[in-house]
Automatic annotation (TrEMBL):
This is 6-carboxy-5,6,7,8-tetrahydropterin synthase. InterPro entries: 6-PTP_synth/QueD, 6-PTP_synth/QueD_sf. It comes from Methylacidimicrobium tartarophylax. It comes from the Bacteria. Pathway: Purine metabolism; 7-cyano-7-deazaguanine biosynthesis. Binds 1 zinc ion per subunit.
């Protein structure tokens, strides 16, 4: 049986978006409560009844959240222009070696806007 497991995480951080026009509100220093949703796709192991323990997702994601939480994102290598698009890519690059079956990263910066990213495929998920 093929399934998708999703797990959600949150962090708070400050940003400025240098790609926006001079005088635009997004160039000013401001912050968001970001939500990160990590999706894993794969086959359920009939012996265990799970794809793999979703605690593994937390173990992979939490060090990244520690790196970003209550930081100025523009100072983080790779996030000099911290749009939700570049943040989704940043998380994908770091998680794809750790999480077999990584299928999608979603970054929400407000309750009504999010970026969904599916990067180059990882190895298949195994429990
Ligand atoms: N494609 C993107 N567009 C925008 C991004 C982004 O990362 N990718 N980011 C921003 C800013 O971070 C901005 O701070 C977002 O907040 P805001 O514009 O207030 O968002 P709202 O959902 O409240 O939308 P409004 O239409 O401005 O009310 C902007 N754009
Ligand atoms: Zn913003």
């Amino acid at each position: 049986m093929r399934v998708t497991i999703e797990k959600d995480f949150r962090f708070e951080a400050a940003q400025q978006l240098p790609g926006f026009p001079e005088g635009h509100k997004c160039r000013r220093l401001h912050g968001h409560s970001f939500e990160v949703r990590v999706a894993i796709e794969g086959e359920v192991d009939p012996a265990t009844g799970i794809l793999y323990d979703h605690a593994r997702i937390s173990r992979a994601v939490e060090p990244l959240l520690t790196e970003l939480d209550h930081r100025f994102l523009n100072e983080i290598p790779g996030l000099e222009n911290p749009t939700i698009e570049s943040m989704a890519h940043w998380f994908w690059e770091r998680l794809v070696p750790l999480l077999p079956g990584l299928a999608q990263i979603t970054i929400c910066e407000t309750p009504r806007v999010r970026c969904l990213y599916r990067g180059p495929t990882s190895s298949p998920a195994r429990s």
